[in-house]
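User: Acetylornithine aminotransferase. Structure?
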Amino acid sequence: MNAKLDSSVTERPVTRQTFDEVLVPTYAPAAMVPVRASGLDLWDQAGKHYLDFTSGIAVTSLGHCAPAVVEALTKQINTLWHLGNGYSNEPVLRLALALTEATFADRAFFCNSGAEANEAALKLARKYAHTKFGPNKSRIISCFSSFHGRTLFTVSVGGQAKYTEGFEPLPQEINHIAYNDIEAARAAIGDDVCAVIVEPVQGEGGVVPGDAAYLKELRALCDKTGALLIFDEVQSGMGRTGELFAYMGYGVTPDILTAAKALGNGYPIGAMLTTHELAATLGVGTHGTTYGGNPLAATVALTVLETINTPAFLARVKDASAKLVAMLQGLITDYPHMFSIVRGSGLLLGLVVSDAFKGRAKDIQKAAEAQGLMVLIAGMDVVRLAPALIVSDAQIAEAGRLLRLALDGIKAA
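Assistant: Predicted structure:
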């Protein structure tokens, strides 16, 4: 027995170096270690202030430590934590009612992450097709540059080979097509396809919005072949585009929708939404999760949903988006040798670097952080901005000021 733990462990100093010593090296986090945050303001161990335009990768959409969420969670913490799936609970029932009333869906399944939500969606699609059409209808169509999670199934469905290298053999009957390519979709989606999964806005793939005509054609092809259309709205959902879910702005209704990230504002929860007919495929014992839909997560998610899903809140997201786009367009005008275009939807935007700066998005991210601005990247050629949906005009202006300082520093180097 190796008794390494002592009573003072919670008082030991920890630094970024501690990560390299004790954590599995699946990430390469920044040198600074955040310790406190409120809204879009964040402070590290040294007391340095940052303006957070990442939202924890489009997660803390109501800001860090959102008062309404803190209040709801605190109340639930003192009421009921966990029961297991042998029992239901009031918060999850209220959350399911609210989500089904707000969307196309009739039924909800809750889990702990976007990957789990997509895993459930893909399993449902396979099982439904096997039940209704037989085992030969099993092929899944996804898009290159997509991202759907890190389980072996979802990472195989995601269209980025770098995430599957070394994990072979991979699940079979999965094919990838170019995003926004209608002809490629027509060629790939045949009668043996059980599901087509797509992000209405590709996030990790470069912040690329789907063309309305493309998404409508996917809907038509699925109707024609009996395949199910799955919208992965893990990153684009929960108000991020200015609609509660992005599909609403496109006028294209999926058969299955997945959500996570901002659904819990940082508390782990994922959801798969679908219809009565499809949900009936997953009978008792066919799928499950220990923690999914627990009272704590469900309470948080309902509070987030009720806050975001109002006309005034969503209208403000669109207004803030217009102001953020204008600020970024100003950067393109003033730094044409660094940036080419801005793209995305709502408050999920990508600033694409110019040919001269190919592969240097990470350099811009690091320079911004040094100035006190946290931004993301989406690949090596896109600086991604996903601020909390409560971002103010003043904070957008401040982000622009800090970005200019960062870019000037890169120019002078």
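Residues 206 and 378 are 5 Å apart (CA to CA). The chain has two domains: 9-65+311-412, 68-308.
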